[in-house]
Amino acid sequence: MHIKSKTYNGTLYVMLCGELDEYSATHTRLTLDETFAGRGFKQVIIDLSELDFMDSTGIGVLIGRYKKMKEKNIPIYIANPSTHAEKIFKMTGLYDIMPKIV
Amino acid sequence: MENKNFMEVTFNAESKNEGFARTCVAAFCLQLNPTLDEIADIKTVVSEAVTNCVVHAYPHQKGIICLRCEIEDRRIKIQVSDKGIGIKDINEARQPFYTTKPREERSGMGFTVMEGFMDKVEVEKNKDKGITVTLYKDIALQVSQAEGE
């Protein structure tokens, strides 16, 4: 898993590249927490266009980040999920807390 | 003509083997010419079942996972077995959002995803030790294949 990020106009853009499963979960969790600890943004957009695979472990990672950012009143949005990631998001109700942006 | 085939692999119950396990099953299923969606479903459920073994079956020791696949006509049967500590209440474990490790940011949706992506899911206690998860999926015959037969 490789994670890219940049802040532009008050939005933190994060791109997850690779596979998000049990093996990559700890690295993903730590890297996102480090990135989210920065300042100068009012919302986060997680871009999944480069995410090749994800299972329900990934859902756990995303929900954990949602809980942390909720304490700071910073919303997280999902962008460019694959058809398959979208299927998992709908099944698990993730879009209820992290809406998809087009 | 009857179409039967099988494969079996065993590997260490470590998360670094999850990618191997799902890719291995996906490659075996290619002989049925599945769609990309079907392959994605299969890779996901294998990952879910193997994660369960890695995270829950062997909390205090190293262990082994056995992965077996059978093809019969258009049906794929995938079995993921461990010799770990087992599951006390299988019905409870299959409920959405159920997790024994709430502090570890687990979604508790593993079995729900398996049930959503496959035609049938069975979870059984092994006679000696551990659990076997059996997953079934019928791979649709593509129009171009049907015409060629």
Quaternary form: heterodimer
- Low-confidence segments of chain B: none
The largest inter-chain interface, given as chain pair and residues per side, is:
A-B, 20 and 25 residues
CATH class of chain B equals Alpha Beta
Total domains of chain B: 1
Query: What is Rg of chain B?
Result: 16 Å
Helical content of chain A stands at 25-40%
Could you tell me how far the N terminus lies from the C terminus of chain B, measured between alpha carbons in angstroms?
A: 10 Å
So what's the CATH class of chain A?
Alpha Beta
Reported for the largest beta sheet of chain B, the result is: 5 strands, antiparallel
Rounded average pLDDT of chain A: 96
Characterization of the model:
The complex is a heterodimer of chains A (102) and B (149). By secondary structure, chain A is α/β, with parallel strands linked by helices. Chain A is 39% helix and 31% strand. Chain A has one domain (2-101): Transcription Regulator spoIIAA (2-Layer Sandwich). Chain A contains 3 helices and 6 strands. In chain A, strands 1, 2, 3, 4, 5 and 6 form a 6-stranded mixed β-sheet that branches. In chain A, helix 3 (83-92) links the parallel strand 5 and strand 6 (100-101). In chain A, helix 1 runs parallel beside helix 2. Chain A starts with a strand and ends with a strand. Chain B is α+β, with helices and mostly antiparallel strands. Chain B has a single domain (4-148), classed as 2-Layer Sandwich (Heat Shock Protein 90). Chain B has helices spanning 18-29, 36-57, 90-93, 110-117, 143-148, and strands at 4-12, 64-72, 75-82, 120-125, 131-138. In chain B, strands 1-2-3-5-4 form a 5-stranded antiparallel β-sheet, covered by helices on one side. Chains A and B meet through helix 1, helix 2 and helix 3 of A and helix 1, helix 2 and helix 4 of B.
